């Protein structure tokens, strides 16, 4: 017990590149701590719902302005099939966009890092494109890909793409120069350098990008549905809006929050499981 | 005649050229030689070009003047059997210790079944035989640096370059690492270039201490240390030892006054 404490102390003190060698996975404590953290998070959520409900009861706003969580949950229970099928649609669009955005983003980030030509031509352009709000592109995707599944997936992809480009590029760039030098002194081929050091080193950064992208992708899919949808949670919200059906609208908000959160945690957990050496929520 | 030396540095100069065309001459007219199996300590002020010198010898940086030969061969003909230890251990956190030690052989494509046994032997030599399948985050800073030293030795280098390898360690760990590096060096017989900021460490370890003066980096003193091997604690407290330390301090001080 004490020796492990001393050594972890040493590690922190002596390694300026602590990001590489110093992080100690807190696996032993994870059990109790994560249960406690989870309990606090749930308590916080319940608190917000309770406050929301209390406000609604106290202020008693008209039903076309605000409804409480109880009506929203009641709405969910009343039409579970309706919400489930629309959630499934949005989920599919978001996941397809996320997968595509991740694959392209990682490829692009790697190309930026490894090719000076790509970097000098594309990096400024990418930054410029990144400043365009991606939602603004949604109508264009509708024109290109029609009113169906594809256009929403592409909106999701366009939004999910950029964090992965930047994070992949940053992850590859942040490989300590000593490791580069070690590879050069030992005459490592470019391929060996990539596979034995650089790609693995960049993976935690890629996962932090993915954590941002997954929530963005859900938002992208919903925006696509706003513009040209006949199904999905975005469509549910629009329809509820036109019918002044606030319980249905708030039910959709809750479902959206839940799936975005769930997806975020899945990506986060996957990252921690696969790469326990690094707590990559920087 | 050059072949007698493990390293010969002949009239070497190095100028970094920045993008705006500004030249920074870091090394100038550097001349020195290292015999096979010799342990040479290098000291000098921060920024005097010690790291640059090691990088040119290892081929990581190109020279702008002169030539460097390792065992008689020009380094530009391809890197020789050189290994380097950095100030930070920089082990790969996803590999256990023995796999970290084996990394250079994987880079070279020379890893065999035999290699693993040798890596294990090296870890035992530095007292980490029982930690072979542990990960770096389970080790103290001193232990990590020992793994990094094994990683350098695994390719049987004839020349070991060390750039402030113990700079990040506390004084006590550092002392024991000094004993250890002396023992390792004596058992492998490689030549060592050892950069340090600690003059006592340089004197205690070195057959010679080379003082690099700054702006531009050049050799201002090259002092042979006449203590028998293996050296022990007593040498550190002898009068001769503090004379060496004082002498070297004066050389570093003089250059600081000029610049
Ligand atoms: N890659 C580089 N490009 C340009 N200038 C450099 C580069 N590396 C080092 N220098 C310059 O060369 C000089 C010597 O640097 P070097 O790192 O060799 O010094 P050092 O003696 O190792 O110092 P320290 O004791 O602080 O490690 C410094 O002025 C530094 O700014
Ligand atoms: Mg240096």
TrEMBL record, chain B:
Keyword check for Lipoprotein: no
Keyword Transmembrane helix (UniProt): no
Sorted UniProt keywords: ATP-binding, Nucleotide-binding, Transport
Gene Ontology MF, one: ATP hydrolysis activity
Residue span(s) of domain ABC transporter: 7-239
Protein name: Nitrate/sulfonate/bicarbonate ABC transporter ATP-binding protein
Gene3D superfamilies listed in its UniProt record: P-loop containing nucleotide triphosphate hydrolases
Species whose genome carries this gene: Prauserella flavalba
